[in-house]
What does this fold into?
Amino acid sequence: MSLNHVRPWRDIYRRKSRQIMVGNVPVGGDAPIAVQTMTNTLTTDVAATVAQVQAAAEAGADIVRVSVPDEASSKALKEIVRESPVPIVADIHFHYRRGIEAAEAGAACLRINPGNIGDEKRVKEVIKAARDHNCSIRIGVNAGSLEKHLLEKYGEPCPEAMVESGLEHIRILQDNDFHEFKISVKASDVFLSAAAYQGIAEATDAPIHLGITEAGGLVSGTIKSAIGLGNLLWMGIGDTIRVSLSADPVEEVKVGFEILKSLGLRHRGVNIISCPSCARQGFDVIKTVETLERRLEHIKTPMSLSIIGCVVNGPGEALMTDVGFTGGGAGSGMVYLAGKASHKMSNEQMIDHIVEQVEKKAAELEAAAEAAE
It folds into this structure.
């Protein structure tokens, strides 16, 4: 799918995949790339888990995954599913019974790891439960838990082993006439992940869930994920994504959306274009942007805002944004609306004024969208 025919150097042609449903969220085909995260609360603590799901959904998560490690978690899952504003994926490891219980509890999707779920007979029982309860499946291949026979064959985790693992389990699902599945081939190594994903993208038309597993903390994990996921998305590969960070799940959602926004694949909220600041700045750019990011989190309407410290690049950037502010010295700067210089504003009043202008523009855009429906 071409996203921008006017500027061909910005075109991204998404890989053609068949579409499945994860609850009410379409995945694959021409559906928007879905953003996922995972709760880190004890699943048996229903209130805490539901609160985290709701926070993730408010930040923009389309789908949330929840661990189901034991029978008590399976029982809690039913209530979590009932209270969740988004589809819930049940994360299943080691015991196939948890997959059956999760399907019965109303999970929209089961994430099973082929390397640790059990033999083919047990996988078949999970498939039956998924079919009986209108539940999709994600085949989750992970470099850290490949099957023993593949490690013996290849000597170490490698792209070929990961692709072969995925295809073996695709065959099991297809042999059981089950086609509502997506697949991931994750590794903590960016190169290994990218090569595995390219291989699986060529070998199947199944929707692909992207992730760099165990990416690290907020800063290092964000960078690693942006490199790995960004390059794959740029190549057109990927139908859902999860940024795996040792951080609050809400941060995973934010980073995921920023990656998609930077490639023009999803648009949500205010995209702030700001300079890195230098001695030319007419106001404290860093502090201003930090404050605006916090105060504009409630805006969901896609729009752009430029915050530039001086007139070198400020007017040019403002030409391409909905709202802009350029520092001009002498304690004030120029406010731009719809790319045109509008009026001056003092630095002291600038933040409140910009928030007001952004909220006003968001309301206008929302009204125009409603009128067009």
Observations:
- The chain is about 45% helix and 20% strand.
- The first strand starts at residue 20 and ends at 22.
- The two ends are 23 Å apart (CA to CA).
